[in-house]
Design brief:
Layout lengths: L2 H6 L1 H8 L1 H12 L2 H21 L7 H34 L7 H19 L3 H12 L4 H8 L3 H23 L6 H12 L8 H11 L3 E6 L6 E4 L5 E4 L4 E6 L4 E7 L1 E5 L8 E7 L2 E7 L3 E7 L3 E8 L2 E7 L4 E7 L3 E6 L9 E3 L10 E8 H8 L7 E3 L1 H4 L2 E7 L3 H6 L7 E6 L2 E6 L1
Parallel strand pairs: 5-7, 16-19
Antiparallel strand pairs: 1-4, 2-3, 3-6, 4-5, 6-9, 7-8, 8-11, 9-10, 10-13, 11-12, 13-14, 15-17, 18-19
């Protein structure tokens, strides 16, 4: 989020002006200065999301400050609720004979994968509402206020997610569809979301499926990058204007790339695969690894680029119904552009491709439309660029040094048949 964007949002401006007071307030509530800063960061991410969604503005400065502090307090409450849930089930992990046998464990891993694939296909707000209400137990009214929607809309989001997950479970199990009410009851029983008073083997499975041992959200603003360490020694590096959600569970490690691009350095763990989900308008793309180094980037047109630096990577695409569409494996030096659209052409694997070259200050284009190239460079350009539709279709290839992105725009007439003009603080690109 840029400083200009922050200044245009009353809530973000209030967060900035009240930051020191907010951290002191959170430190008193949590008893830990480090946790207070973490909660403050999570608060900023929630506020930034609201601003991007165009949530209803507050009426005055005092109202904005109260909203910011209330949101931060609720995040602390959510953390304590999660910690209590974890403590109630932690003893099961150490108890002898409570884990499933190998066959049962495989079955539940497959079920979890089906659930995750289904949730990856719903809109991000729907997924968040479902998980935070049915898994974390957050109040529907609070969620409605945060997302700027009605309680009825919260209920519709939960129903949509539950129907989508249940349909995926039926495909996995091979059973016939059941009635809507029965489906929701079955799903609640399967995931344990109808209530948390479980014990023994069921508690063990609940822990491994639904309770993250660690979670974090990270985001970058214009022309910024960020390296986020992971608890197992790996790391995620974010490109400019990127956003990722991370969570580690007892049996899996997960990430959701919501915007931009990220490079993942994953420590090998054969018992806990690392899964990156990229939600798209018509489905989702999933990348699964055990331990490797690879880059993932969201592209215009609902496409996703995957580039592998080392190791083996499995790439899948899913439709809006959660059904699998494409499955490919990539090795070191290979890259592939994939989409969740139903009528996409089969993805082509390219060799000799550097993974996430933006880490070295470069962006590479290979026979892409000019509009896509400019859209990719907006993360770094100091001024806006308007590309007329006819010019946007022209194709080009080459490498651009990020620090000289504006020089690339200025030099476009020597590369493709266009006219470039700088006026009123913005660039215009038109076909000749």
């Amino acid at each position: 989020m840029t400083a200009q964007a922050a200044a245009s949002s009353p809530l973000l401006a209030s967060f900035r002006d009240s930051y020191r007071d907010l951290v002191r307030y959170l430190a008193r509530r949590t008893g830990c200065a480090d946790e207070a800063r973490d909660v403050a960061h999570d608060t900023w991410l929630r506020l930034a999301d609201m601003d991007l969604r165009g949530a209803p503005p507050v009426q005055c400065e005092a109202e904005a400050r109260a909203y910011v502090f209330t949101m931060a307090r609720n995040l602390v409450i959510d953390r304590r609720r999660h910690e209590g849930m974890a403590q109630r089930h932690a003893h099961v992990l150490a108890a002898p004979g409570q884990g499933p046998d190998e066959t049962e464990a495989l079955m539940y891993r497959q079920a979890i994968a089906a659930v995750e694939a289904a949730l990856a296909t719903v809109p991000e707000r729907t997924r968040q509402v479902f998980l935070r209400h049915r898994i974390n137990g957050e109040d529907q009214g609070a969620l409605a206020a945060e997302f700027g929607i009605s309680r009825n809309m919260v209920e519709r989001d939960v129903m949509l997610a539950m129907d989508r997950v249940q349909a995926a479970m039926e495909r996995w199990h091979g059973s016939a569809p059941t009635a809507r009410r029965g489906r929701r009851r079955a799903l609640s029983a399967l995931l344990g979301v109808a209530g948390l008073s479980v014990s023994g083997a069921l508690a063990w499975r609940w822990w491994r499926i639904a309770v993250p041992a660690w979670q974090r959200a990270a985001a970058t603003g214009h022309a910024q990058t960020l390296r986020q360490p992971l608890p197992d020694g790996g790391s995620v590096t974010l490109d400019a204007q990127s956003r990722v959600q991370l969570a580690y569970y007892a049996a899996r490690r997960s990430a959701r790339l919501l915007a931009g691009a990220a490079f993942f350095d994953v420590v090998r763990d054969e018992d806990r695969p690392f899964v990156v989900d990229v939600p798209c308008e018509q489905g989702a793309v999933r990348i699964t690894v055990l331990g490797t180094r690879f880059g993932v980037e969201r592209l215009p047109g609902d496409a996703v680029e995957v580039q592998v630096e080392s190791g083996l990577v499995r790439v899948e695409s899913f439709g809006a119904d959660g059904g699998a569409r494409t499955l490919r494996e990539l090795r070191a030096g290979e890259a592939m552009r994939i989409s969740a659209e139903p009528d996409q052409t089969p993805p082509r694997v390219r060799s000799g491709v550097a993974a996430a070259p933006w880490r070295q200050g470069m962006v590479a284009f290979t026979d892409v439309p000019l509009g896509e190239a400019v859209e990719r460079l907006r993360r770094y350009l100091p001024r806006p660029v308007l590309v007329e539709p006819q010019a946007a279709l022209l194709r080009l290839s080459g490498q651009v040094r990020i620090a000289q992105a504006e020089d690339f725009v200025r030099a476009l007439p020597s590369v493709v048949p266009v006219r470039v003009q700088l006026a009123a603080g913005r660039w215009s690109v038109a076909a000749r």
